[in-house]
Specification:
Helix content is 39%, strand content 21%. It has 5 helices and 7 strands, in the order H-E-H-E-E-E-E-H-E-H-E-H. Strand 3 and strand 4 form a beta hairpin. Helix 3 runs parallel beside helix 4. The longest helix is centred in the middle third of the chain and has 14 residues.
């Protein structure tokens, strides 16, 4: 499927129920917190991946995607564009179904690597805005 296509976005929103949020902060003032909180209220399983956090939403946070037990459907990336490629490569390595680079997070080469590895890819879009628009 094409990067950022309506079909790709819909498939991710419908099929990816376990979401690792890379860069998720425990601070309610951060965008990552607001988006992840919205996800949780919509019955998605949210897993925090941030080496600077021990827990978010009362649940254990993990330092890396490799440390997360169980299967991850979607890796949602709240990192600087310059750091997004590392998270994308980790998502490929753990066998995630999809990666979502949040609004303002742009790494075309990483997006192409993910797509070439068979992952669904969305880049420079807000998960919450797209969910609200489609649901």
């Amino acid at each position: 499927m094409e990067i950022n296509s309506r079909e790709t976005i819909k498939k991710i929103l419908d099929d990816c129920r376990t979401i690792a949020v890379v860069g998720l902060s425990s601070s309610p003032s951060r965008a990552s917190y607001g988006v992840a909180s919205y996800m949780k209220r919509r019955d998605y399983k949210v897993i925090a991946v941030n080496p600077n956090e021990t827990e978010v939403f009362g649940e254990k946070a993990y330092a890396s995607l490799a440390e997360v037990p169980g299967k991850i459907d979607l890796v949602d990336i709240f990192r600087r564009s310059s750091e997004a490629g590392t998270a994308v490569d980790e998502a490929i390595a753990i066998g995630a179904k999809a990666v979502w680079l949040q609004e303002g997070v742009i790494d075309g080469a990483a997006a192409q690597r993910a797509a070439a590895a068979g992952l669904l890819v969305v880049m420079d879009r807000c998960w919450l805005k797209e969910h609200a628009r489609m649901k």
